């Protein structure tokens, strides 16, 4: 089996006639933490949605292992941008995490012992067991992020596509989430996350994709984000 778990070949995505992602060819290694960095409107969220198989490609191809994304959906967990979540919807922590089992259960949503066990394990891994009956809107930002990561774990996925998971988190919650992602790397889970903070990306991630509609650079994060490299690929990042 290939060491590359996600392979993108000339991936091009458009909204109407406007190209949001153009000609992206790269590979994402199994068990790596890959940061997607780039300016607003660079196509970062669009690229994640394309990997999920949600966006028709104008050109190119995406493979997850040996499969088309639509045949790999159980392996792919998605964390939307916080803005895209309805925080007023009344649902408990446990209710959100249970949603992770829905795709596997089909319409009846009848939980077997194994499903409950996976929900319990996911709650425990994200340190949410004590909070499981709370409404999610009453939690802190860091706790809310952990709830959605627990839902992703409950799905049984091994590839995690996270859109700006650190947005709005304070310093302790940021450190905690970074530690969670590093522990996932040790468990050979693959994480692809949109990140804005270059310093945080350097500290936490092993690989980076630098995107501005086109791919500006890709590879080990120390190389992609080396100041000498950024001078030519993305000088605005050096002003931060
Ligand atoms: P990023 O996540 O890097 O900020 P996006 O992937 O959200 O960028 O957007 C890339 C480009 O596609 C932007 O120009 C944005 O305005 C456009 N875009 C994103 N979503 C839509 C949409 N649903 N309809 C039309 N244009 C969109
Ligand atoms: Mg975005």
Please outline the helices and strands.
Layout: E1 4-15, E2 18-29, E3 33-37, H1 44-51, E4 59-64, E5 76-79, H2 93-99, H3 102-105, H4 113-125, H5 141-154, E6 159-163, H6 171-186, E7 190-194, H7 198-204, E8 207-212, E9 214-220, H8 221-224, H9 227-233
Parallel strand pairs: 3-7, 3-8, 5-6, 6-7
Antiparallel strand pairs: 1-2, 1-4, 8-9
Structure overview:
With 240 residues, the protein is α/β, with parallel strands linked by helices. The chain contains nine helices and nine strands. The protein has helices at 44-51, 93-99, 102-105, 113-125, 141-154, 171-186, 198-204, 221-224, 227-233; strands spanning 4-15, 18-29, 33-37, 59-64, 76-79, 159-163, 190-194, 207-212, 214-220. It has a six-stranded mixed β-sheet with strand order 5-6-7-3-8-9, with helices on both faces. A three-stranded antiparallel β-sheet has the order 2-1-4, covered by helices on one side. The mean pLDDT is 92. Bound molecules: adenosine-5'-diphosphate and magnesium ion (MG). Adenosine-5'-diphosphate binds at residues 15, 20, 38, 40-46. Magnesium ion is lined by residues 44-45, 81, 163, 194.
Q: Give the structural class.
A: alpha/beta
What binds here, in terms of ligands, is: adenosine-5'-diphosphate, magnesium ion
What series of H and E elements makes up the topology?
A: EEEHEEHHHHEHEHEEHH
Into which percent range does the helicity of residues fall?
25-40%
The whole-angstrom Rg is 18 Å
Identify the strand order in the major beta sheet. Answer: 5-6-7-3-8-9
Shape: globular
How many alpha or pi helices? 9
Distance between the termini: 40 Å
Number of strands: 9
User: What is the strand content?
Assistant: 25-35%
Low-confidence stretches: none
Give the overall pLDDT as a whole number: 92
Describe the sheet with the most strands: 6 strands, mixed
């Amino acid at each position: 089996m290939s060491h590359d778990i996600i392979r993108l070949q000339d991936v091009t995505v458009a909204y109407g006639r406007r190209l949001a992602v153009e000609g992206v060819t790269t590979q994402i290694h199994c068990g790596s933490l890959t940061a997607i960095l780039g300016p607003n409107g660079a196509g970062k969220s669009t690229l994640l949605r394309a990997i999920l198989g949600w966006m028709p490609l104008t050109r190119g191809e995406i493979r997850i292992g040996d499969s088309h994304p639509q045949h790999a959906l159980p392996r792919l967990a998605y964390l939307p941008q916080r803005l895209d979540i309805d925080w007023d919807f009344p649902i408990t922590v446990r209710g959100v995490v249970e949603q992770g089992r829905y795709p596997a259960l089909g319409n009846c949503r009848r939980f077997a012992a194994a499903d409950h066990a996976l929900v319990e394990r996911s709650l425990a891994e994200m340190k949410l067991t004590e909070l499981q009956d709370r409404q999610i809107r009453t939690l802190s930002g860091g706790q809310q992020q952990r709830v959605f990561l627990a839902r992703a774990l409950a799905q049984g996925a091994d590839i995690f596509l996270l859109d700006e998971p650190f947005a709005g988190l304070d310093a302790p919650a940021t450190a905690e989430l970074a530690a969670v992602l590093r522990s996932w790397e040790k468990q050979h889970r693959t994480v692809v996350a949109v990140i804005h903070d270059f310093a945080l990306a350097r500290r936490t991630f092993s690989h980076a994709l630098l995107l501005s509609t086109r791919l500006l650079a890709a590879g080990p994060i120390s190389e992609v984000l080396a100041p000498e490299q950024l001078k030519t690929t993305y000088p605005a990042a050096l002003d931060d």
